[in-house]
Amino acid sequence: MKYWEKKLIREQLDKQLSGTNLSSFPSRKSWIKVIREALGMTQSQLAQRMGISQPRVIQLEKAEPDGNLKLSTMENVAEGLGMKFVYGFISKESLETMVREQAMKIAMQRMGRLDRTMSLEQQGLSDEDKKAALEDMVDRILLEEEKELWTTN
Q1: Do 96 and 131 belong together in one domain?
Q2: Tens of each residue's pLDDT in the chain, 153 residues
Q3: Which domain does 71 fall in, by range?
Q4: Structure pTM?
Q5: End-to-end alpha-carbon separation of the chain, Å?
Q6: Using a CB cutoff of 8 Å and minimum separation of 24, what contacts does 57-66 make?
Q7: Number of domains in the chain
Q8: Fewest 10 Å CB contacts: which of 15, 39, 63, 99?
Q9: Distance between CA atoms of 14 and 49, rounded to whole angstroms?
Q10: Are 14 and 40 members of one domain?
């Protein structure tokens, strides 16, 4: 897949995810318990709806905040609560920004080496030329070296 195709996919994913503001939700809570109580459902009632024992519901509510439940278990709990379980990732920033920032890190490392070499040869670049060269390097990394983007240096 070419860079531009991947860029389009990232942009489409960013649009889809932008309307999902789950990052404001507190993490590491027992959502099972919170939702069950909000519905006015007892542990016994949830257990009955799920076809499990009431002590197992207690275990589920305790295990959830630690992330110790399988996705299939969460789907079953959601069904018992009359809900749908959704699993996903919420990015801290746009996917395109993440990719460009990673390319910028690589470009800055390379530019630092290049700048030292050129300074030793008394051929240093102006700040404006450095900025233009850096942007050009970022674009070239994204276009030509995409597979190396996330390789640690």
Answers
A1: yes
A2: 787 788 888 888 888 777 665 555 556 678 899 999 999 999 999 999 999 999 999 999 999 999 999 999 999 999 999 999 988 887 788 899 999 999 999 999 888 877 666 565 566 667 788 888 899 999 999 988 888 889 865
A3: 21-89
A4: 0.65
A5: 24
A6: 57/32, 60/32, 61/30, 61/32, 61/33, 61/36, 62/30, 64/30, 64/31, 64/32, 64/33, 65/28, 65/29, 65/30, 66/28
A7: 2
A8: 15
A9: 37
A10: no
